[in-house]
């Protein structure tokens, strides 16, 4: 099967910016009370069992939630990002993979993070990702997703982290994402929309925490 162009573009973009991305964002969690708060709530609700950081990038959240006591591993589309994650967090497991077809058994995860990993998929294709997340999360397991807020509009990115690239990103409607998760079999139990926190973001940001129906 031919890979969609947006997937190829996304992988190439993140491979290109990986080192600069990791360096710029390595301390971003320290600057965001809200990020740490929702990750802490996710850790408390998830409890025991394997957790997938799906779209983990250089592993900055993977390492953080591991420090909160979760049994976490990372998956990312970008081999360059996975290489950095393995180097930075040698005690954790990281694999190359795609959110559309995870190499994970059904109901194998106590929790899943999809932290800004839905934003490069066209909105009309997001039901595929929501169903795949529902497939791998066990009944009464938890999902936490974060994304930039908008009206599902496309933004073409041609320069990022000091590099010329070509990739699309979508600013998503929280109601739209909540409905996707509901349709896939989750119950959205919390949502938060916060103001931007420069210099790391310039638009409102959303978090949704959902429980897989038992």
From TrEMBL:
Annotated source species: Amycolatopsis silviterrae
Pfam families on file: Methyltransf_25
InterPro entries: Methyltransf_25, SAM-dependent_MTases_sf
PANTHER family: TRANS-ACONITATE 2-METHYLTRANSFERASE, TRANS-ACONITATE 2-METHYLTRANSFERASE-RELATED
The protein's name in its UniProt record: Class I SAM-dependent DNA methyltransferase
Record's keyword annotation contains Metal-binding: no
Gene3D superfamilies per UniProt: Vaccinia Virus protein VP39
GO BP annotation list: methylation
Keywords: Methyltransferase, Transferase
SUPFAM superfamilies: S-adenosyl-L-methionine-dependent methyltransferases
Methyltransferase domain span: 53-141
């Amino acid at each position: 099967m031919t890979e969609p162009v947006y997937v190829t573009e996304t992988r190439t973009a993140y491979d290109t910016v990986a080192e600069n991305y990791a360096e710029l964002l390595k301390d971003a969690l320290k600057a965001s009370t809200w990020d740490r708060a929702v990750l802490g709530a996710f850790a408390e609700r998830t409890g025991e069992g394997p957790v997938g950081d799906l779209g983990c990038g250089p592993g900055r959240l993977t390492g953080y939630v591991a420090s909160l006591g979760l049994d976490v591993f990372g998956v990312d589309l970008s081999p360059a990002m996975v290489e950095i994650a393995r180097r930075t967090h040698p005690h954790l497991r990281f694999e190359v993979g795609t959110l559309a077809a995870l190499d994970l058994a059904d109901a194998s995860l106590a929790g899943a993070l999809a932290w800004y990993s839905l934003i490069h998929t066209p909105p009309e294709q997001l039901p595929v990702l929501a169903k795949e997340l529902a497939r791998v999360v066990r009944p009464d397991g938890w999902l936490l997703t974060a994304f930039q807020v908008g009206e599902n509009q496309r933004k073409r990115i041609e320069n990022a982290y000091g590099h010329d690239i070509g990739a699309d990103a979508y600013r998503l409607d929280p109601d739209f994402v909540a409905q996707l998760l509901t349709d896939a079999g989750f119950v959205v139990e919390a949502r938060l929309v916060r103001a931007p926190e420069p210099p790391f973001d310039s638009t409102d940001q959303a978090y949704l925490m959902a429980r897989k129906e038992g």
